[in-house]
């Protein structure tokens, strides 16, 4: 996680101080076919998570043990899992945790890192010191191990608890990016002008600093969403994530690990989760390219 | 320089304290009796209970409990697992496995990442550069879990080139597949960062100055571009090195290597809270120590950092 973020941080640090209106940004993005395709794929996965019945009428929990691990059959394109449940329905229903993680941890992470970064960058002194020191402590931990320790001590883990703990431990990197961009924006003429006519600090932050400082964090967040989906799967696979009977791609990997003779148990969730994460990555990549001042004509 | 090193060491101490206290608080100061979990559903005789309470210092105040268990940890009295295995001897068996896996995978990913990153950075927009950007985008996007399983399935189960799991085949052979899998995930970040850094540095003003005053290309490359371009790469190497245990948890659980990561995985499965805390505390302390070393090494390489 932190490795990939380090790379994204270095690749997104040139984006600061850009003012590109939302409409311009959208127009630049819609010109790219790979962006459009990936958005459509992500929308399809979101639909899968919200309305799984659109894609399958089979109940994922209706199982016939006699059909355990059987391959594809007419009406059951992905075959059956070890309990003899229809695997297609299970993979479709497994989209929900991944999508919730991508949405909540993605947007939530953006909000938490953005707000803390704004505060730390705009109010040097006590506020900055407190936020930065807490970030130092969280930064000094290997992310996965910290999540394992914390989640291991939580008895009943729902998707919200997992997302919440990812949010609580994961904000420092984004906060640092935001803080450094705010540093470069806070003494620009328009901010000084707003301050000189007595605009209250919160309004300056909201109207002037945030819109001009959010680009690097936005690019970093979209690039990192795929990693968050993978992280949820890893945590569930390791046994500190979602617990059975919840259906998720991560728990399907966990089962597939013990039944290596039926590869379809692994292949289908792998294809779905990889398509989702690659789509998010390409969307993030396109947004970063669209925001890169060196590429704007 | 000495002041710089001392300051870094002093800065690491409070972080280490906060982290170990936090881990300890999470597990031992949770509501409920830790011994209840140890016994499961069976009733515990009062004498056993009292003995266990004394053994784990449960009747002492929180801070005393913390200090005593830290003392146990640093003097090597790790105790036993619920199943009765001696944790210290487990660690002796498992640490070499993880070390071998870590060194092999780090060597692979650093060599490959640097070579490809440098080449792509110098031949920007060339064939290698484009291929690298595309392939690393995919590698960074595909979850590690999928990559490890796919590697195991393809090269172990289908092609039978390398052992599927376990370490019965001995050092290089049995570790090659898991190490390559870890290395591929790390390689992507390494190569991309090296490339970006080379490109940025090659366009910097001091390189233009060097060229303008007539220095040869070789001298510009070795004396001006590389030392500056490799600074962020060294930072990433440090992060990689310190975070290798997290990668090992996943690789060792999937490839069934009897290392520290697999120990952690099994301890979670069997609800061995104490072992999880011990291993993660070791991981945290190692992480902080490695970061400290990286910081100090970085101070030697980059004189600008020393004055901060």
List keywords for this structure.
heterodimer, A: 297 residues, mainly alpha, B: 308 residues, 14 helices, flat
Q: What proportion strand of chain A?
A: under 5%
Number of helical segments with 4 or more residues of chain B: 14
Q: What is the H-and-E element order of chain A?
A: HHHHHHHHHHHHHH
Task: Give the chain pair forming the largest contact, with residue counts.
Answer: A-B, 47 and 54 residues
Mean pLDDT score of chain A, rounded?
A: 80
Q: What is the count of β-strands of chain B?
A: 0
Nearest-angstrom radius of gyration of chain A? 22 Å
Give the distance, in angstroms, between the N- and C-terminal Cα atoms of chain B: 12 Å
Give the termini distance of chain A in whole angstroms: 33 Å
Sheet of most strands of chain A: none
Please count the helical segments of chain A: 14
Q: Uncertain runs of chain A with pLDDT below 50, 5 residues or more?
A: none
Secondary-structure topology with pairs:
The complex is a heterodimer of chains A (297) and B (308).
Chain A: H1 2-12, H2 22-30, H3 33-50, H4 87-93, H5 95-122, H6 126-139, H7 143-152, H8 159-170, H9 172-185, H10 189-196, H11 201-213, H12 215-238, H13 249-258, H14 264-291
Helix pairs in contact in A: 1-12, 3-5, 3-14, 5-6, 5-8, 5-9, 5-12, 6-9, 7-8, 9-11, 9-12, 10-11, 12-13, 12-14, 13-14
Chain B: H1 2-28, H2 34-39, H3 46-55, H4 62-74, H5 87-122, H6 127-141, H7 144-158, H8 171-202, H9 205-212, H10 217-242, H11 244-255, H12 260-269, H13 273-301, H14 303-306
Helix pairs in contact in B: 1-13, 5-6, 5-8, 5-11, 6-8, 7-8, 7-11, 8-10, 8-11, 9-10, 10-13, 11-12, 12-13
Task: Tell me what you see in this structure.
The complex is a heterodimer of chains A (297) and B (308). Chain A has 297 residues and is mostly helical. Chain A is built from 14 helices and no strands. Chain A has helices at 2-12, 22-30, 33-50, 87-93, 95-122, 126-139, 143-152, 159-170, 172-185, 189-196, 201-213, 215-238, 249-258, 264-291. In chain A, helix 3 packs across helix 5 (95-122) and helix 6 (126-139) runs antiparallel to helix 9. Chain B is mainly α and 308 residues long. The model of chain B has no long low-confidence stretch (mean pLDDT 79). The interface between A and B is large, with 47 and 54 residues.
